[in-house]
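Hi there. Long-time user, first ticket. I'm pasting a complex I've been working with (about 403 residues overall). I'd like to know whether the download I got is complete or cut off, because the file seemed smaller than I expected. Thanks.
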Amino acid sequence: MKEKRSNLAEDFAFFEQHSKESSLAPGTSGQVETSKIPKGLKSEWAHAITKDLVRSPLQMATVYLGLSVLGYGASLAVCAQNSLGLGSWSHRVAEVLHHLPDPWCPIVCGGVFAIIPFAISSLVLNRFQQRYLMTRMWLFFASVPLVAAGVMLLLPHSLQHARLHSTLSSSSVRPDLLSDGVWMALWVATAVLLPYLLQAIVYFAVMPKRRIVAAD
Amino acid sequence: MDADDSDELILECWLLGEVAAFETFFKRHSSRVAAYAARKGIPRNEVPEVVQDVFVKLHNHIDKYEPGKRALPWFFTLVHHTCLDRLKRGGKGKPRLCRLDDIEGALGIAAPPEGGVDQGWSVDIDIALRQLSSESRQVLDMRLMEDLSFEEMSAKTGKSEVSLRKAYSRAVANLRSWIGAPRGGSR
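Hi, the file is complete. Here it is re-exported in full:
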């Protein structure tokens, strides 16, 4: 066993030594000598690895923005928000949700609005891209739900929740307990905080665990 | 990604999804992996495949790298095991000629103390088997894998029992000299 270990130590010494002698050009203080580089980076397997990773922040921002627009579009197709919906079905779903007792109406509405873009980006982006977004572009990443909620807030009907209820066809619409301002505040809080909360869970799932070494 | 960056930093950047980190790490270490694979007895034409296996494996298992830990020993372990796997498979999924434990028995190599497989010996024997002539390997195969007697081997090949015994002894002696195994324990 000892002999095997010493063989492994010799192997490691060879492995460690090799690049010092042949991969670094003399006098370049760490420059990689290009003549020694294999052509492997142009091969199919290297291309597959490269596709998993992020080439530039701009590329990642474009992809994430595209996915977010798609996600919020899908969300508005599922459930209309502040009278803005894509298709008649979304208005029907919104009507059903408006029958929920307060404060669940704004919370569920905000949740539906936020969860679909989150689900789409989580499904499409791999763990490397998720890590990149959360560490290298966290400000941009965090601003997308804020901007989306802000845009919804600026819609003409956003602060007319009471009026919206009066237009609902059903006679069994619950009485309005929350003012328009409180309703909207709850909606914005859910639409912004839910993706942050879910993303925090994803962060702990995709980030490697650092081993905590106890001090002597 | 700078060429002066440490391996630890590069692995962390790779982990966080930077393509430049992968390219820098590959450029820095691919020739080292190739040299090590060649040193472990992997045929020259299979070395690029080993380099590919190493980097694909590294990409798939990079989550297991603990940031802050020294990168090169961790990477070396991965390279070493990839080389061992390749040697055990005998390249491109070809079936191995002889069972290593049979060869170890014929060479009289003691089992490792814990009773597990001693990979160091197995790999040495595997490399040594590649050095033998096809005739010697055929004799070992018949004797150890098919468990044939010399009489049965003679009937199968049409060669005399004496010449088959000599060929078998020669093959075992060659294996012993290659791996430096102790004498005794032949079948």
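A couple of notes from our side: Residues 92-98, 110-120, 183-187 of chain B have pLDDT under 50 and may be disordered. Chain B touches chain A through 47 residues (CB under 8 Å).
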